Amino acid sequence: MNPSRLIVMAEPWPRWSDHKSVNLEMIKAGMAWVYRKYNDDLIYYEAEEQAKRERLGLWSQPNPQPPWEFRHPDQPSTEPTKLTSVDNRSCGLKHFCKEMTSCNEAKHYLNVCNIHALDKDGDGVPCEKLCQSH
Fold first, then answer.
1. Residue 128: CA atoms inside 13 Å, Cβ hemisphere, count?
2. Which is nearest to 59 in space by CA: 96, 93, 23, 34?
3. CB-based contact 118:110 (threshold 8 Å)
4. Domain extents in the chain
5. What is the number of other CB atoms lying within 10 angstroms of the CB of residue 118?
6. Which region holds residue 87: left if phi is over 0, alpha if psi is between -120 and 50, else beta?
């Protein structure tokens, strides 16, 4: 990737001109940590785990220091908790039935992520068309 090809668009994260997430690519290369306090997308955790397994970038070091520990050395060291995951899904960015791929996923987003807009009639069944046979 060529840094001169970086395009900052009107969205919350920068992307390369080929529409790849700069943040995700840095994590994949082992050049960045997932900042657990603000991330809610499982793909970043998966990329970090893969970089760790392959010992890429900072993960090639025996004891890499998380940036939150570096910035606050006087505070007790605590590993931020990973996203809560149910059936390997996190509470990501989905908010509409058209984004769901299964009834189970819709139920997860309704019951775990509290996306109540998925249950339009309030009967506890999300995405009626998707879950009609469940």
1. 6
2. 34
3. yes
4. 3-71, 84-134
5. 24
6. left
